[in-house]
Amino acid sequence: MRSKWIILAVLSVTSYFQQQSTAPAQVQDPQKSVVAPPAAAPAMSTVYFYRPRLYRGSTTRIGIFIDATMAVNMVNGRWASIQIPAGHHVVRPKDDQSGIEIDMEPGQSYYFRSGWGEAGMFHGAHKNLMLMMKEQAAYEIKQLKPLDDKDVTWPTTK
What we know:
- With 158 residues, this protein is of the alpha+beta class.
- The chain has two helices and nine strands; from the N terminus they run H-E-E-E-E-E-E-E-E-H-E.
- It has a domain at 44-151: Immunoglobulin-like (Sandwich), CATH 2.60.40.
- It is 18% helix and 35% strand.
- Strand 2 and strand 3 (69-74) form a beta hairpin.
- The radius of gyration is 29 Å and the shape is globular.
């Protein structure tokens, strides 16, 4: 019985010293005790663009710009999503005849439907952009295919 206690004591002491030897020494320098906060990532908003499948203008791509930078090149029957910094933005198609100025909130999602404006005497009316409600946009996007990567031109931080 006594030998069991001795073995148990030796094992306990051995495991204690092993834990102490593997633990890193923590020496704090009083001058380095101030911890720098991590760099804050910019607050982002998610923007969805989609173009319903319609016959009118189906072969023409609609370029969508955010703050004068090309974001997506919309193809008939496709959708895309991008992340942009929250804040004030101007979203417009290439022809500059319609557009939306919007203050985007961090963590929020915004849905834009692109297409053609009124039918004029000639085919080349103007490109149209509409801000849509989430519920309607989600229903319409489910019926579309994702846009190819080559048509999403928004600058990314990789």
